[in-house]
Inverse folding.
């Protein structure tokens, strides 16, 4: 190989290295669409953005150097921010499901939380999923609740009446007024709301499923690069106990690892 050829290859390799460095350096900030009323995951109180999501993203920012910007809204607006490019991901304890996998690329899951039926505290007769036959089941627009209720009805051979609400606040208020018999919450959220008096309710003993919670990203080059950075941070936070500490703070429990014997049905590579 002659000297000119060697020089040309060296320059090309240097250009590729420099380009990769520039691409990595360009990832200086990330915009996260997050809920304004999803207690305790992401909510705004007295002008402050609080919840597990802000805490998780503060930890991600600390270890990656990314500046994290939030845009907040009701749950049914969050994926609109992502799809329009006004946000890079959604941080609102998003459940992985097939419909979302078909459209987005998910980060490493950062929580594994059982989905629970939430019923009025006096309904101690409701112990199994099949017991909600004929009841009015409410869920927030854009959430995974409607899909889960339909899956329960099909699997258990029962019928339920579905009612959709524009926000978590409206759903919770309808439940308090007795206009809704059953809701679906992540087990962590249900425990927090019941413990802290947000709802007079109980959870049905039988779990619906384990919900893997992860951050969805679009499939363009920049989004996939951000996904890689965030996934690496999540893996480190699982290993060093950072996520455990956040969940202990909010729930007095740890959701950072899959339950014993759980096998994920999803391939998120």
């Amino acid at each position: 190989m002659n000297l000119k050829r060697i020089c040309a290859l060296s320059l090309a390799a240097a250009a590729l290295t420099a380009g990769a460095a520039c691409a990595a350096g360009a990832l200086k900030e990330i915009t996260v669409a997050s809920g304004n009323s999803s207690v305790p995951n992401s909510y705004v109180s007295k002008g402050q953005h609080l919840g597990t999501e802000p805490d998780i993203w503060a930890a991600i920012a600390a270890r990656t150097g990314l500046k994290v910007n939030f845009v907040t809204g009701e749950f049914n607006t969050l994926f609109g921010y992502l799809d329009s490019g006004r946000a890079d991901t959604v941080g609102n304890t998003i459940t992985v499901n097939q419909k979302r996998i078909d459209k987005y690329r998910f980060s490493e899951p950062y929580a594994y939380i059982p989905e629970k039926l939430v019923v009025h505290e006096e309904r101690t007769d409701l112990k199994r999923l099949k017991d909600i036959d004929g009841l009015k089941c409410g869920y927030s627009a854009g959430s995974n609740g409607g899909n889960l209720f339909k899956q329960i009805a099909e699997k258990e051979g029962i019928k339920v009446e579905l009612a959709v609400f524009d926000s978590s606040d409206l759903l919770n208020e309808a439940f308090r007024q007795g206009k809704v018999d059953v809701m679906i919450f992540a087990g962590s959220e249900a425990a927090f709301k019941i413990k802290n008096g947000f709802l007079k309710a109980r959870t049905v003993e039988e779990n619906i499923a384990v919900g893997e919670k992860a951050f969805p990203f679009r499939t363009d080059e920049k989004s996939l690069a951000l996904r890689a950075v965030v996934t690496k941070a999540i893996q480190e936070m699982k290993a060093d106990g950072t996520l455990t500490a956040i969940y202990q703070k909010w729930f007095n429990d740890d959701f950072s690892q899959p339950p014993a014997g759980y096998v994920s049905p999803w391939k998120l590579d």
In short: The chain has two domains: 29-110+214-251, 113-211.
